[in-house]
Amino acid sequence: MTNDSVGILSAARFLPPKTLPLNRIAQAESGPVDASALSPLGIESVHVFEGESPTEMAVAVSQAALSEAGMGPLELDAIIDFSVMPQRYVEPAWSMSNELQAELGAKHAFTLGFSGGGSANIHAALKFARALIRANDDVNTILLAAADQAIPGNRVLSAGAPVTVIGDAATALIVQRNAAAATIVDTISASNGALHDVLNIPGGGMAHPTRLDLYKLTLDEAKYRSRDRMRDLLALADRMLARNGLDRDGIDHFLTANISDDDTEAFSRTMETNGRLHRDNLGPCGHVHSCDLVLNYLSLRKNGAAPGHHVLMASHGMGFFLGATLLKL
Questions:
Q1: Distance between CA atoms of 253 and 325, rounded to whole angstroms?
Q2: Taking residues 203-207, what's their average pLDDT?
Q3: Average pLDDT, whole number, for the chain?
Q4: Which of 187, 191, 193, 274 has the smallest set of CB atoms within 10 Å of its CB?
Q5: What pLDDT does 92 receive?
Q6: CA 163 → CA 23, 118, 219, 256, distances in Å?
């Protein structure tokens, strides 16, 4: 076990060129959706992937991250998939990270994947990657990638009223020992088992293996509204900051998921961000699960971030899984 620092060496995104505005999203839904009910979410459009498999997006974004880092696939020691949506085959029996390894030619890497955590999946991936590098002298560089594509006719996620609109995108991070860029100071996560099915796809699993009409991402309204997600996230983030000798006043930039205007405003109020929350991608991209955090991180790096700044990334995963990551640029 070492105390070496671990940081984000590079980051990349892939946004499909096709976009869909709100009115066309409403028309394409499998169930009735009032386009006017989507307007208050603050989402203007989403990107739509038209390829054969989300793996194509994962390959493209991973190659971009490797190129930015100035390295090749043979230098990767591990590949972690933090996607949320279904991929080419049913998971967890199959993981996109396996196919991604083959497509990249990352022969020296081993693979694994995290799912089920919604927009907080990325914290689990970062936590594991950091711990893996610090615990193993022969692991130095890890690729984290996610490629999420909405189920056709299932972009609007509702809990009584629309909660968000799901877009398509892929993001990737190269995490490396002693990276000079964004140091991963700490990560923290928590889960509430009672909310294990707050976000789920009922059809296609063992509960309803042949019910294709139930093959859609579903949010359980009662469970979604049963917890104060922001207060739970605040307590978790404050605990992490305290053990690093910091509080929220010492944070230069806040990042969270792109769920809706209401969600980001609730985050800002609860965390008392006071103008330090960066939320550039909600309008043009909608919600793309954990990719949201990487999209916002990339925007931050281009707009206002400076060496030495502390960044708090925090997201609630719709209540079941919560996580926070502290970075020092």
A1: 12
A2: 80
A3: 93
A4: 193
A5: 66
A6: 16, 14, 9, 16
Distance between CA atoms of residues 141 and 79, nearest Å: 9
Task: Tell me whether strands 310-315 and 253-255 are parallel, antiparallel or unpaired.
Answer: parallel
- The answer to whether residues 273 and 254 touch, using CB atoms and an 8 Å cutoff, is yes
pLDDT band with cut points at 50, 70 and 90 for residue 33: confident
Angle at CA of residue 79, ends 66 and 51, nearest 5°: 70
Q: How far apart are CA 135 and CA 246, in angstroms?
A: 25
Residues 6+ apart with CB under 8 A from 47: 15, 16, 17, 18, 19, 20, 167, 168, 169, 285
What mean pLDDT comes out for the span 236-255?
Answer: 98
- Walk me through the domains of the chain, giving residue ranges and CATH numbers: 6-179 (3.40.47.10), 185-328 (3.40.47.10)
Q: How buried is 35 (Cβ within 10 angstroms: 0-12 exposed, 13-18 middle, 19+ buried)?
A: middle
Structure token pair of residue 39 = 């307007």
DSSP for residue 203: B
The better pLDDT of the pair 27, 44 is held by 44
Structure tokens at 148: 């999420």
CA distances from 320 to 6, 90, 116, 145, 258 (A): 27, 22, 9, 22, 17
Beta-carbon neighbour count of residue 161 at 10 Å?
Answer: 11
> Would you state the structure tokens that stand for residue 247, as one six-digit string?
């509080």
Place 210 in a pLDDT band, splitting at 50, 70 and 90.
confident
Residues above pLDDT 70, as percent of the chain = 99
Whole-angstrom distance, CA of residue 284 vs CA of residue 48: 12
With 80 as the cut, is the pLDDT of residue 48 above it?
yes
